[in-house]
Amino acid sequence: MNSITLKSRLLARWKIITVMLVLIGIGSYTFYLGVVDVEDEYELIYRGETTLGYITDTWEDVEDMDSGGVHWFYGGTYTYQLPDGREFTGKLEGDGRLKQEFRFLTQPYPVEVTYLPTHPVVSRITADLPDSILRLIRSHLFPYGLVSVFFWFIGFYLLWQLIREENIFPKVFSYNRSKDT
Q: Could you say which DSSP state residue 17 is in?
């Protein structure tokens, strides 16, 4: 084998390994994002306590889509106070339009806030929490899980192809039929 062929095979092998690692890394990071969000909401559903809070500021924005439509999204802040007097601020975000009563907020709007007593910084507006584990899985784990599996599948498929083409494990992937006859 000449040196040009050897160099090009080594370069191709490293390109495949790099792409494979990037794909597996993207899948793992996507899965991590889904699990972190789900973990907080699961804890809030089962261990959270509620208190009175106030939405203090809201905003909404629109961006043009390539298909000619528009995409609305919104955000805001809310404050809540624990029974011991400590006050915290949380953020809310979402897709779509703000409810009519929040568009022109002139004074704080009362809402119920769920927070973790052991870690009160973790909170959500109670109405925004899923009401069951099934809805939590459907809204977070299912989409993040599908994207993760997609990237993992492609990454591991590339690894499988690399192992087969380079004959890294010849005894595993080669089968001598002459012994059976």
A: H
Query: End-to-end CA distance of the chain, in Å?
Result: 34
Report yes or no: 88 and 113 within 8 Å, Cβ to Cβ: no
pLDDT digits (tens, 9 = 90+) for 41-85: 888 988 999 999 999 999 999 888 888 888 899 999 999 999 999
| Amino acid in the structure at residue 68 | G
CA distance 51 to 56: 16
The one-character DSSP state at 68 is: S
pTM, to two decimals? 0.63
- Give every CB contact of residue 150 below 8 A, 6+ residues apart in sequence: 27
Tokens 């007097």 belong to residue? 85
β-bridge mates for residue 114, sequence order: 50, 124
39 in the Ramachandran plot: left (φ > 0), alpha (ψ -120 to 50) or beta? alpha
Task: State the chain's maximal CA–CA distance in angstroms.
Answer: 87
> Quick one: 147 exposed, middle or buried, by C-beta within 10 A (0-12, 13-18, 19+)?
middle
Closest CA to 120 of 56, 49, 53: 49
